[in-house]
Amino acid sequence: xxxxxPLRLVLFLYEIIRFIDMIKGVRLFSFINDLARPDxxxxxxxxxxxxxxxxMTFFLLISLDAYATYLPLYMAGxxxxxxxxxxxxxxxALYHQHGSGVNxxxxxxxxxxxxxxxxxxxxxxxxNIKKCKxxxxxxxxxxxxx
Length: 146
Description:
146 residues, mainly alpha, 0% strand
């Protein structure tokens, strides 16, 4: 099933950029700012669940037939991260009113818009999968059972 292959590639590339952005900007988030240098366990606890998104999009990219059932799980995870991104966006906008948090506001805005676009892209891919399965399972109009 070659459904929206370029869109799946864009999803994968966005998730890689998002993950790298999170690694580089971990000190921009308000709940980690009080740590001078987070230790390895705290970093792994934060980044390990977020590494699942690039992995999921990678597997959706290489074999949609085998991993299409995981698309709703991906969308559910994106909805959770969207809710957290909106919360961080609101908190950052409220507490950094005087221009000190412009960089973090930009990063969190990028993550929020990206999560919305990923959810929309996932819905498009899911709808196209349903259409393909519908046409694959229906008998041809010329085939009559005797």
